[in-house]
Amino acid sequence: MEHPIHMPVFQGDQPLYLQLYQHLAREIQQGRPGAGKKLPSKRRLCTMLGVSMSTVEGAYSLLLAEGYVRSLPRSGYVAAQLHDVQTQPVPDLPPAPPPSSQWLYDCSTSAVDTTAFPFSSWARINKDAVYQNPGLLQPGHPQGDEPLRVALAGLLAQYRGVCCSPEQIVVGAGADYLLSLLLQLFPLGSTVALEDPGYPTAWSAVERHGHRPVSVPVDQDGMNPQALEQSGATLAYVTPSHQFPLGVTMPVERRSRLLRWAGQAPDRYLLEDDYDSEFRYASRPIPALQGLDHGGKVIYLGTFSRSIAPAIRVAYLILPPQLLARYRQVFPQSACTVSRFEQETLRQFLVQGLYSRHLRRSGNLYRRKCLIFTQALESCGNLALTGQNAGLHFLLTAPHLTEPEMVERTAERGICVYPLSRYCHQVPPPPSTVVVGYAGLPVQQLEHCAALLGLALAPITPPPGSEPPDAPP
Amino acid sequence: MEHPIHMPVFQGDQPLYLQLYQHLAREIQQGRPGAGKKLPSKRRLCTMLGVSMSTVEGAYSLLLAEGYVRSLPRSGYVAAQLHDVQTQPVPDLPPAPPPSSQWLYDCSTSAVDTTAFPFSSWARINKDAVYQNPGLLQPGHPQGDEPLRVALAGLLAQYRGVCCSPEQIVVGAGADYLLSLLLQLFPLGSTVALEDPGYPTAWSAVERHGHRPVSVPVDQDGMNPQALEQSGATLAYVTPSHQFPLGVTMPVERRSRLLRWAGQAPDRYLLEDDYDSEFRYASRPIPALQGLDHGGKVIYLGTFSRSIAPAIRVAYLILPPQLLARYRQVFPQSACTVSRFEQETLRQFLVQGLYSRHLRRSGNLYRRKCLIFTQALESCGNLALTGQNAGLHFLLTAPHLTEPEMVERTAERGICVYPLSRYCHQVPPPPSTVVVGYAGLPVQQLEHCAALLGLALAPITPPPGSEPPDAPP
Predict the structure, then answer these.
(1) Do B117 and A94 touch (CB under 8 A)?
(2) What average pLDDT does the segment B237-266 reach?
(3) How far is residue B235 CA from its own chain's centroid?
(4) Which one, of A41, A73, A75, A81, lies nearest residue A60 by Cα?
(5) Contact call for residues A229 and A217 (beta carbons, < 8 A)
(6) Residues in chain B closer than 8 A to A24 (CB atoms)
(7) Taking 60 as the threshold, does the pLDDT of residue B427 lie above it?
(8) ipTM
């Protein structure tokens, strides 16, 4: 005998067949009809509900395919025997992270000034790259398309003294992604030496990939070699061009000492993160450590997210020969994570000379910003600056205050600076020091921001009313 | 006294200052001049070499910044004391992987027919998305921009019965990337149950992330629940809509049993990889397992690389509330790996209804391809097909041959099919069976390909000259 069913209520945008399916599936789950009992025939359901035969057939075919009903010859559909589905309450969604506070000035080290970017050229090249290359819908080379890798190898030889074949380059969607990929090439439980202070994200990435991070202190020349030698590490992560966050540059003597360390065992490597090497103000950009390496010991990591824009998710890893072989073994069938259209757009941007021109312009812009900002800060007195000869951030020290006082006082003025302690793991942070990025601050407002910082960090709290003039528009 | 230096030979494209720097750095490394000895003055070097002062200054400033020379007041530059740089021979590059052989027909399971893709609409939308949104150069939401996530949540509710908030979605550059991200949310050493046979890349990803993969056999209803219950796993990776590679669909009883398993411990989860759920021929698409989950136990993974094109690197992960909280804790400052311009292009493609239209058209195309191909194969006799009611591949069994014989014989005809054993870990592969994908084969050549397969897999080797007619153009 056919079992009576509750009538569904059709509402909303979903197709009727799907709504009918969901209604019947729910009914069967709740035992209406019970296991083995018949459902209405398709024709009868059409008449009952006033819907088309294709709606009912769509719903019944889903119920059949999913196993809610079985089809018996000459008796139509009967409900299947179902196990109880656990219906625990769904936990509430975690609260969304607070929106990035409305700072007057955020001195983030990862901000970039995109006003210098030749956006209309990029858009035009992108348009042509897409329209003219429908073939790029097909899978490309796992390491990134060869023409882009050839252009990158040329660019890196010219600008960074990097010596590599395009075959050694792996293009990927951001430096974090490529670091994750690289860490998967090392045996689980490898010891990785990290600069301290250094990038917190590198530390946590090493841990998440099942390796053992070891803190190695940074001195005025970069990673301390004695500590590295004692660390037992197989991989050392360094930022030789402009140490993050201290801003020191590694001299060649230290570089050669690190290379010697790496050369002393076959499985030792140096990872050179050249994150903001494009920008150097006191001298021309310093060639990469990679170019000094004659033993296949340096892995080089670079990105366009600072030199072009954060939203352009293209970074590149250069693997020495032995790690390249390991990469091909571990990731035999991976797909490149960067859209081939974006790869082709970037390639044209490079080979047409637009990138070089953009680097010159943005370098000049950042040099000017750095000069205005640091001069204004130095004129405040009582503040010491270090690491300002390169990159897009520097350290600011106010010897008469503690680090938390500095952060708190600047926050009261609406300015976000970053405590140096947040980049320290085991090394005690240099006292009274914060990290200040300036790339994202508008050039007209640098002096205003500096004046506010000067007031906030003055040795004696200034009397009320001693505000600097309003910021320029 | 000033030390004589070898004259540099300038050649190639590199700027002169860089060539001069490299030459002098090499000289100093080789002890010319020795430590503490003077280099020529800048002015003298200009005259000696016939280059401009800015060339010499560029080179000297690099040497100084890198520590090759020191600057002494009133005596100019002297060479620094350097350690020997190890100069082991660089290992040779590993041989490049062989180029994908020139198969007549490659029955890969990951190929896609991009001829059905409305490329000109995509290009037009992309052009507008870029030109009209220079603001997208700035960093976006780590999980992907909200408008895209809203569109995805709507699409998934309508097409897949997935029930989620846009807040739960994480957009990323491909399913492999998102699987890697997900695996980093579980404590190291977690036990992960994997379908056997199943995706080999999932197995190796689990291992690379420091977890323990466990093989769970697949029966005619999908992952075997008793074996799962005994596996000790906290995460089970399943493909309920169309098991890869067997092609079975998991009925609701099995789904509810897996959900019950997940509900029995607070840290148990199911990962539903819905990789090709868009394509189903015998019934309408089957709603996702995720939609049955009322306890926050199912993680859902989807991708556009099959339904749009392999080069569109956009996939999405839906995290249940507890894992979303963990994700925000583990990746507090990550950047989304998909270009914001591509995110906006995809969003418009979805909300303008172009994706729905494309799915209908490509679904019809694949249905037609499947029908032509499977009918042609069935007419060969002696061949059995399974799993052809959904997705873009099926299993082909030739009971009179071994699996290696099948692969070898088809290869002799220029056809690449995939041995089922390659997807098996501990479970013995069903005998005499290969995996055949057809999405990438041109529709006019399916009958020719089937005829060749029929000849290759015939019980008796056909006499010479029994070739099928030539392939259509």
Answers:
(1) no
(2) 93
(3) 21
(4) A41
(5) no
(6) none
(7) yes
(8) 0.84
Q: E strands along B29-145, which residues?
A: 69-72, 76-79, 105-106
As a whole number of angstroms, the distance between CA A283 and CA B61 comes to: 5
Q: Which CATH number fits domain B101-111+356-456: 3.90.1150.10, 3.30.70.100, 3.40.630.30, 3.40.50.300?
A: 3.90.1150.10
What is the rounded distance in angstroms from the CA atom of residue A45 to the CA atom of residue A62? Answer: 15
- At A406, give phi and psi (nearest 5°): -60, -45
CB-CB: which of B139, B328, B330 is closest to A208? Answer: B330
Say how far apart CA A232 and CA B282 lie, in whole Å: 60
B366: part of which helix (H) or strand (E)?
helix B354-378
Which of B17, B201, B312 is facing A284, going by the closest CB pair?
B17
Residue B64 in 3-state DSSP? helix
| Contact yes or no for A309 and B138 at CB 8 A | yes
DSSP string, A285-347: PPPPGGGG--SS-EEEEEESTTTT-TT---EEEE--HHHHHHHHHHSTTPPPSS-HHHHHHHH
The conformation of residue A397, written as its DSSP 8-state character, comes to E
Topology adopted by domain A117-355 = Aspartate Aminotransferase; domain 2 (3.40.640)
Question: What is the model's pTM?
Answer: 0.85
Residues of chain B with CATH 1.10.10.10: 16-79
Tell me, what DSSP letter sits at residue A88?
P
pLDDT at B380 (0 to 100): 87
Query: Which ranges in chain A are annotated with CATH 3.90.1150.10?
Result: 101-111+356-456
Distance CA A288, CA A365 (A): 23
Q: Give the residue range(s) of CATH 3.40.640.10 domains in chain A.
A: 117-355
User: With an 8 Å Cβ cutoff, is B312 touching chain A?
Assistant: yes
Whether residue A249 lies within 8 A of chain B, CB to CB, comes out as yes
Least trusted range by pLDDT, from A348-352, B73-77, B195-199, B322-326: B73-77
Return residues 104-143 of B near A (CB < 8 Å).
110, 114, 117, 119, 122-123, 126-127, 130-131, 134, 136-140
pLDDT given for residue A86 in this prediction: 47
Distance CA A461, CA B258 (A): 64
A with B: how many residue pairs have Cβ under 8 Å apart? Answer: 315
Lowest mean pLDDT among A32-41, A206-215, A267-276, B420-429: A32-41
Q: Are B24 and B68 in contact (CB under 8 A)?
A: yes
Residue B16 pLDDT exceeds 80: yes
Residue in A closest to B21 by C-alpha: A287
The model's pLDDT over B59-108, given as tens digits with 9 standing for 90+, comes to 888 888 778 888 887 778 888 877 655 445 567 888 877 666 679 999 99
User: Whole-angstrom Cα distance, residue A392 to residue A114?
Assistant: 13
**Lowest mean per-residue pLDDT among A397-406, B206-215, B271-280, B317-326:** B271-280
Least CB–CB distance from A283: residue in B65, B80, B110 = B65
pLDDT for residue A87: 47
Residues 6 or more apart whose CB falls under 8 angstroms from that of A86 comprise B259, B260, B262, B263, B264, B294, B295, B297
User: Yes or no: is domain B16-79 CATH 1.10.10.10?
Assistant: yes
Q: Which of A5-19, A38-52, A185-199, A242-256 has the lowest mean pLDDT?
A: A5-19
Q: Is residue A310 scored above 90 in pLDDT?
A: no
A200 CB-contact burial (10 Å; exposed 0-12 / middle 13-18 / buried 19+): middle
Residue window 170-229, chain A: list those with CB within 8 Å of chain B: 173-174, 176-177, 180, 184, 188, 201, 204, 208-210, 221
pLDDT in the model for residue A89: 56
Under DSSP, is residue A272 helix (H, G, I), strand (E, B) or coil? strand
| Concatenated DSSP letters of B426-454 | SSPPPTTEEEEE-TTS-GGGHHHHHHHHH
Residue B282 has pLDDT above 80, yes or no: no
